[in-house]
Amino acid sequence: MPRPVPVLPEGVDPAWLPVRAFRPIGTRRTLIRGSGPLVETVHGEVAEACARFGGRVERDAAPGPFDLVLELTGSGDDSSEAFGYERGRGCTTVTATGARGLLYGFFHVVRLGEAAFVGEAQQALHEPALALRMLDHWDNVAVHPVMGQVERGYAGGSLFWAAGRARGELERVRAYGRLLAACGINAVAVNNVNVHEVEARLLTDRIGEVADIAGALRPYGIRTHLSVTFAAPIVLGGLETADPLDGRVREWWAGAVARVHEAIPDFGGFVVKADSEGQPGPFAYGRTHADGANMLAAALEPYGGTVHWRAFVYDHRQDWRDRTTDRARAAYDHFVPLDGEFAANAVLQVKHGPMDFQVREPVSPLISAMSHTTLAVELQATQEYTGQQRHVCWLGPMWSEVLRFLGDQEGPAFEELVAVSNVGDDPFWTGHPLAQANLYTFGRLAWQPDADPGGILDEWIRLSFGTGPAAGLHAVLDGSWRTYEKYTAPLGVGFMVQPGHHYGPSVDGYEYSPWGTYHFADRDGVGVDRSVASGTGYAGQYAKAWAEVYESAESCPDELLLFFHHVPYGHVLKSGRTVIQHIYDTHFEGVAEAEAAARVWESLAGLVTPARHARVAELFEEQLRSAREWRDQINSYFLRKSGVPDAEGRVIY
Amino acid sequence: MPRPVPVLPEGVDPAWLPVRAFRPIGTRRTLIRGSGPLVETVHGEVAEACARFGGRVERDAAPGPFDLVLELTGSGDDSSEAFGYERGRGCTTVTATGARGLLYGFFHVVRLGEAAFVGEAQQALHEPALALRMLDHWDNVAVHPVMGQVERGYAGGSLFWAAGRARGELERVRAYGRLLAACGINAVAVNNVNVHEVEARLLTDRIGEVADIAGALRPYGIRTHLSVTFAAPIVLGGLETADPLDGRVREWWAGAVARVHEAIPDFGGFVVKADSEGQPGPFAYGRTHADGANMLAAALEPYGGTVHWRAFVYDHRQDWRDRTTDRARAAYDHFVPLDGEFAANAVLQVKHGPMDFQVREPVSPLISAMSHTTLAVELQATQEYTGQQRHVCWLGPMWSEVLRFLGDQEGPAFEELVAVSNVGDDPFWTGHPLAQANLYTFGRLAWQPDADPGGILDEWIRLSFGTGPAAGLHAVLDGSWRTYEKYTAPLGVGFMVQPGHHYGPSVDGYEYSPWGTYHFADRDGVGVDRSVASGTGYAGQYAKAWAEVYESAESCPDELLLFFHHVPYGHVLKSGRTVIQHIYDTHFEGVAEAEAAARVWESLAGLVTPARHARVAELFEEQLRSAREWRDQINSYFLRKSGVPDAEGRVIY
Predict the structure, then answer these.
(1) Interface ipTM
(2) What is the per-residue burial (b if ≥16 Cβ within 10 Å, else e) of B461-490?
(3) Is B569 within 8 Å of chain A by CB?
């Protein structure tokens, strides 16, 4: 039985799967071969398209001719996600040995649109570069008194939970899974890595609620993962210890996983934030993080599950007066000594930068230093530090830079890509309609990390908006990350944000805090000396070539200069500008660019739906207000401190 | 029937009314003459003391001899609070024409202790300088999501309310009223001036809960007041307007007051925060604050009630870039044009300084500029900006400076003194046991504004602790306000606090905010130019003599220099030190003084109760940590900005 396509609730934006995107398939004759649940999903998709546009869909041995053949060549048990694609003699053929491959092949055809049905195409094998492409939802079950329903969420409530309960709106979850499958995402963690009291119980007596979500996502090839607390044996199991080497603890976890597996046969595994920002972990028992992760890995192993163990471990109670501690060093210092000790299904999940999702950071040196450990790189789609989905900030170029940097390394790469979700129950899914581009781009980059992000954006625009507003949307989005970078914290220094909520500027907001996030600006200069020669030594954590580049202020790239070096305001950048003049210039430029983008958006009225246009136009007002606030605070701060006037005499307060 | 003395709940600190304080009366023979409820209160007090210590109390025509005669000479209807006091021929005599006068005379004897029963004393009339001596409780009925049960409360929950309901612990409220009467306070407003949804209903269907509190406070001569929302006719009355000149609105208020008066015959009146920090007010209807206040005054007038109308009106959405607006000017600019327009029972309640209860501010020029308006001066006993009852900070000297400044003015003075309460359900009433001194001192200064605060403190110490630890307590408390001033924001500049909760340093925390609280520090200097010649003109709001003093940096007192002037770091103070060296010196001194105070406190173990000693010792740990944090942040900030090294080469980070 073909599985019906999920129906979007009234008023919810179709994102990159509008009805229009299915016209090329829906007007044609399609044959589907094979059996199994995901084949029925594909059949339901094609049938829905044909019902709408007058095409036809047949199964198995039906007589042709066909414009499109989608064929599962094996039994479907094959876990491969690859598919073959070719076109000849007027017929487009997708073949796959695994059911998920067929699903991805189908969406490949959707993405190609009419281009899938013209000309010839040689047989080509498409397969994802990374086996796991996961979204981590920082969704709380209960509303957290400070963090709310979704921690760092800027898109309304959670798709899964509301005020302590499962929402039970599974049709919307199915529609969500469909969007994710269409861009290649195959795993979702359904709750916040900060596991509070209510959320802890998802692992045990509330696993049924997780199973319902898993059931809704499964038809689109998505496995469900769960964030758990390391202290679960104590808080849920009534033990007096969570020591990973304690037999009763190991037994408790084994039993817990067995029960989870009964409820969710294809359960993906756990995500764990341990010994991090106050969460419990193995340190309390004198055990290593490998001990902790491996204990959970052992419990999951019989069922093919994985533990994602986050490497975000640092001292968040640092004394700002202590110049010997450097938070940027922490993940490397903690985990490199453990390389080789992690089980095969214990995945170390490492944030892409050494700090915390700033608009500009160097790539974490840990990622290239763990030859004998399975790694997941974690990106942040939710725009915590990049405008909180009130600012346009397409992160594709940033992510692509990170992935290419890693692709160019000699050392081992990584096997998985994870992003913190930017999705909520907002009608546009992501709050800011244009933030959908980040979600889509993440999925496509996770499938092919060396893909051209501009091409991905183009694909997203075509699917979501059609070709009419494409030039305008590129103008608004292409440079938006660099625009955001320009009007916020300069030259890689980071963290000049309001403490707590992290929106808007506060240059000294984290300067005298325990969080390890300092810029050390004084009347003479600014930046953090992380060189080996005179600083914290962080630069020395990189392989030789990059260590040398970062070690000296002369060779360090401009955009990371203040991350690695404390320099005088008069220091001349490679661009030829002084640091102080660069600060002024980029802040004026950034606002001007945002203003220009808002004008472009204005001109797109009539080319995009009124709902999208109105929402984005409204958000641009806030973006411009905020960008000007950033410009003026940053410029005023540095003028007051440096005393150096702007060479162009512009207004600085 | 003598009214029994309220029984303190187990573990609650007796504050300045320990049993011991009643021994001088309790061991003697007392005659009480007169009748009425407050006479019964006094009789109950004396009877309780005699029961404990073996003395004797008689009524009216009983035969002598007596050591003490307490006589109500009139019917008790006299509203006078005055009492006569004399001693001769072995007998101490207190006479009063009003019942409250007798009560205050009784507590006068308590405060005198044994000294009331030795020697001779000429007949003297004691009467309060100010008719109304009020505590405003910023207590919420429901727990506010940000502000909690008590807004800016640092002493646990509320005595009156808990989680949306009346606590109903009226015995504790009675004990509270007794403490207040013993230091001369005669009015209490029982809820927060920010009137939220639940709290609004105290005026109507929940007035019974207020009446219960009023009933508990009445036997100690305390009238109860209520904070109301100006929008009450809309939110409670179902009208579509709260326009003070609208007949239906006036009618609604008249009816509401009539019903309040039925429940509370001696109801004191309303406290209103209107058009202030988001609260509704007459501006919405194009009416003046006099229109608003007079409408409420008219409703209260038939019952002898008063409206306290707060003058805390300013633009809390200021643009920090706008140097033409000065929050310090706001109250004067708003209210001076209305002088003479307020009804006789409409009291304008003015904060003592022009900003908001900083550790050092000049006295508000508004207070001396309203010849034709009844004024209440508002102090803040709750230590919002003065250490939040985790730091020892006895505010007596600050308040005394303010009151003496006002006493020295030629213009009209003020008729009432109000303090924001520092009391909660904490066993020590005020969280920090030594913060009780602020509550006591407020009451005594409200009775006699020109009293020597050191004498009041001495009185408080003798009552609360006896004479043993007196020298030590003076050492800890006498200079504590100046110590706190030294290690926090320098030279009157104010507001270098963490935004929101206002605890701990953040030099730039309010520098780029909409709150109108700036210091304008740059690499060359710091401070706000409020002169007439080159600044905001605020200095010109004072009468000529003070306007001239404040106008120039040369004549401005050191401690207010940065409030009135922006000066270079090298500016030489009257003390002979430069501004920058003053900043360094005072911050090192302040911490050293706090450390010395902590050592003195340590030495008092054995001289104060173990419970008090332990609580204060624990709080000193936090005070020292916080004081060092203040020292280091402020010094680092100004060293980084000025580049001027400390002349003594001490450690600055």
Answers:
(1) 0.89
(2) bbbbbeeebeebbbbbbbbbbbbbbbbbbb
(3) no
